[in-house]
TrEMBL record:
Higher taxonomy: Bacteria, Pseudomonadati, Pseudomonadota, Alphaproteobacteria, Rhodobacterales
Domain of life of the organism encoding this protein: Bacteria
MF GO annotations: oxidoreductase activity, acting on the CH-OH group of donors, NAD or NADP as acceptor; zinc ion binding
Keyword Signal: no
PROSITE patterns per record: ADH_ZINC
Pfam families associated with the record: ADH_N, ADH_zinc_N
Protein name: L-idonate 5-dehydrogenase
Family recorded in the similarity comment: Belongs to the zinc-containing alcohol dehydrogenase family.
SUPFAM superfamilies, A to Z: GroES-like (SSF50129), NAD(P)-binding Rossmann-fold domains (SSF51735)
Transmembrane regions listed in the UniProt entry: none
Organism: Pacificibacter maritimus
Co-factor requirement: Zn(2+)
Start and end residues of each Enoyl reductase (ER) domain: 11-343
């Protein structure tokens, strides 16, 4: 019996290939995959052949936002049984390098991350009918939690880690720039933590409407209302915290304008080299921080989805069968009509 997988061979060359089925070993489980979300990095691989200096140099199974059901367990596995439904953590740190010893696992020197072309051989991803996983990658999903929602645990974990850079958001006035999947989830996390106001900006009414469903209190279309943030700008600024999710230079400059002195800008979106007003950052004593992946937050994300405290379903705008992966990737690139596009991995 063969297993089908969504394999990127080169830029714009995405195929459904037959691969060998996984064989369970003593300390692993075989998963029947259910849903896989298309991430921005998957889109960069598809459209550009890589991300930054990382290049796709050999066929790679894409996808790292995945969920599934346990089909078989190794003889040393005691915490999972066949039939368990799980969200799959794509992060596999080595647990032995200097960063792992400091419990900064997201910076592991030897990180293996599902669907990543950072290393050669590439780490194969989760968009396939079946895959092998370790026990510590599998987080149980409640019977009444959809596996589509469970596949959103990874991007939610990213946003939980971003929020952890700041501390308490209770009572804070927050700006979220960019209403894609990460922006929408930052709205949800910020709302859960009790922010007093959450304003989200984007270029498209469709994405903004979903961010409002996810917890934003006000939306601004900066394409139709480019000066709408002007009232918040100036020396004193109007926001305590900005989650910058667009990676667009104008949005980052705007964030610097509108954050208050000694406020926070958390750079969540990934960009290249930019020209920024360093004098303003210094003069306002802005705490401008980056945020990278997650580690303990994955378990927290699954728990929040299981409990219903965060409903991720509004941002899942389309689900395609795996055999329509090419169409799904095209739709995921259309920010006027899609936020999070998933593949149903059970067929094909």
């Amino acid at each position: 019996m063969s297993v089908k997988a969504c394999v990127l061979h080169a830029k714009h060359d995405l195929r459904i290939d037959a691969i060998e089925p996984p064989q369970v070993s003593d300390d692993t489980v075989v998963l029947g995959m259910s849903h896989g979300g298309i991430c921005g990095s998957d889109l960069h691989y598809f459209h550009d052949g890589g991300v930054g200096t990382i290049r796709v140099t050999e066929p790679i199974i894409v996808g790292h936002e995945v969920s599934g059901t346990v089909l078989a367990v190794g003889r040393n596995v005691s915490t999972l049984v066949a039939g368990d439904r799980v969200a799959v953590c794509p992060s596999q740190p080595c647990h032995s390098c200097e960063f792992c010893n400091l419990e900064q696992f997201q910076h592991c020197k030897n990180m293996r991350f599902l669907g990543s072309a950072r290393t050669v051989p590439h780490v194969q991803g989760g968009m396939r009918n079946q895959m092998l996983a370790t026990v510590d990658q599998c987080f149980k999903v409640d019977p009444d939690t959809s596996l589509s929602s469970a596949a959103c645990a990874e991007p939610l974990a990213v946003c939980l880690h971003a929020a952890s850079q700041v501390g308490s958001l209770k009572g804070k006035k927050v700006l979220v720039t960019g209403a894609g999947p990460i922006g929408a989830l930052c709205c949800a996390v910020t709302a859960l933590q009790g922010a007093a106001a959450i304003i989200v900006t984007d270029l498209f009414d469709f994405t903004l409407s979903k961010a409002l469903e996810m917890g934003a209190t006000q939306s601004i279309n900066i394409a139709s209302s480019p000066d709408a943030l002007a009232d918040y700008a100036g020396e004193n600024g109007g926001f305590d915290v900005v989650f910058e999710c667009s990676a667009a230079e104008p949005a980052i400059r705007s964030a610097i304008d509108v954050v208050r002195p000694r406020g926070w800008i958390v750079q969540v979106g990934v960009a290249g080299n930019l020209s920024l007003p360093v004098n303003a950052i210094v003069g306002k004593e802005i705490r401008f921080v980056g945020t990278h992946r997650f580690h303990p937050e994955f378990a927290e994300a699954v728990a929040l989805i299981n409990s219903g405290k965060i409903d991720v379903s509004p941002m899942v705008t389309q689900v395609y069968p795996m055999e329509d992966a090419l169409e799904a990737f095209k739709m995921a690139s259309n920010r006027e009509a899609a936020i999070k596009v998933q593949l149903d991995l059970r067929g094909a």
